[in-house]
Design brief:
Residues 39-58 bind DNA. It comes from Corynebacterium frankenforstense DSM 45800. Residues 16-76 form the HTH tetR-type domain. It is globular and about 50 Å long. It is 68% helix and 0% strand. The termini are far apart. The model has no long low-confidence stretch (mean pLDDT 83). It has two domains: 14-61, Homeodomain-like (Arc Repressor Mutant, subunit A, Orthogonal Bundle), CATH 1.10.10.60; 76-195, Tetracycline Repressor, domain 2, CATH 1.10.357.10. By secondary structure, the protein is mainly alpha-helical.
Length: 200
């Protein structure tokens, strides 16, 4: 019996494989060198592709960095875990997911990259992080809610601050709290942004 490619689970195309190789190479380089120190030519060489393909697939080095962040967020499975969850539980679960994703030992390379990004350009990290998180959050908010994009942006900004203070900077009393303490403190604020009255 022949074993062809399943239509429900097709093999990645050449373009998809190339794109993934570029993201892999960029993630590795960004994990131990500053964003501005890594060149497009180096990324292309590490990925085994023409550097011009980076601009073809991602538009710019900033676009590639966004894709690296986006893949890391997707790897947490957050969207799948939040899908179908009662709206009233989204805030607490989002905080738990952020804590689990950023506190995991396997995120060491990712954390190193984020620390460098913060030191080099806090605005870049904030803009990219909120952009990626906002898109993910909008997709899980109930469609009947008003101001869904605004709600997602507000929640994303709160989570970005949480991650920055606890896992990137890692200083102060806030960084010493355990996960459930953080959930009890931050979860209600995230929940209000997601489903509460915004007054706008």
């Amino acid at each position: 019996m022949a074993h062809g490619t399943s239509e429900s689970n097709p093999q990645p195309t050449k373009g998809e494989r190339t794109r993934a190789a570029i993201v892999d190479a960029a993630a590795a380089l960004f994990s131990w060198r500053a964003f501005d120190a890594v060149t497009v030519r180096e990324i292309g060489a590490a990925a085994g592709v023409n550097p011009g393909l980076i601009h073809h697939y991602f538009g710019s080095k900033e676009g590639l960095f966004t894709a690296v962040v986006q893949r890391s967020v997707q790897a947490t499975g957050a969207r799948e875990r939040l899908a179908g969850l009662p709206a009233a539980e989204l805030g607490a679960q989002l905080v738990r997911l952020a804590e689990a994703a950023w506190g995991a030992p396997e995120q060491a390379g990712w954390m190193s990259m984020m620390r460098r990004a913060v030191a080099e350009s806090p605005e870049r990290l904030r803009d990219i992080g909120e952009k990626v998180s906002t898109a993910a959050l909008v997709s899980v908010l109930p469609e009947e809610l008003d101001h869904r994009e605004l709600r997602a942006q507000l929640a994303a900004s709160q989570l970005a601050g949480l991650v920055l203070m606890r896992h990137v900077a890692g200083v102060g009393v806030f960084a010493q709290l355990d996960t459930e303490e953080v959930v009890s403190l931050v979860g209600p604020t995230v929940q209000r942004y997601l489903t509460g009255e915004l007054g706008v």
